Amino acid sequence: MTRHESKLFINEGIFGIFDNGEVPAETADRSGGLIAPMAAGAMVRTGINSGNVHVRMETGDPVSSPGEWEEEARALIWSPTGSLRIESVVEGPGLDLPILSASGPGWYEVEVKARGRRENPDASVLDSAEAYQVRLRPAPGATPPVPTSTSSETDPGEEARRRRLLQG
Q1: Distance (Å, whole) CA 136 – CA 102
Q2: pTM, two decimal places
Q3: Contacts for 167 with CB less than 8 Å, ≥ 6 apart
Q4: Closest CA to 78 of 22, 33, 132
Q5: Computed from CA positions of residues 166, 33, 7, 82, in that sequence, does the dihedral angle turn out positive or negative?
Q6: Of 91, 109, 121, 131, which is most buried, counting CB atoms within 10 Å of its CB?
């Protein structure tokens, strides 16, 4: 089992599992509670609005003890480039956290466990007690997503949406 830990800055109540730094926020499926999968990668919802949370990434067999986590969720996420990383929307990748998608491009099952999300809902907390554990496993049986458009033209509103998301 390998464990990597880092503090991660949160803005607007989310951090990401982004593929090659891309944030296709307009494609986010916000119907779940903890994880919002996107066309590539996913967003993870936090309790605080802004501040720092603790993030732990584990590989290998789980070592969590029962009762350590208050919430957990799983989702399938797509990695077109094989460069999934845990990232702050504002500051980018967690420096102490390696690439999650060691198997390259493809589908992955992500499992996120959390504790402390209800302690300071929507607050700004410089150093929150919130903690997250992220585990990723290849999901080789899943098929690649079907493109939603055959047009090669870029959406003129896409850059504006991305800027709004990054600015909060």
Answers
A1: 9
A2: 0.81
A3: none
A4: 22
A5: negative
A6: 131
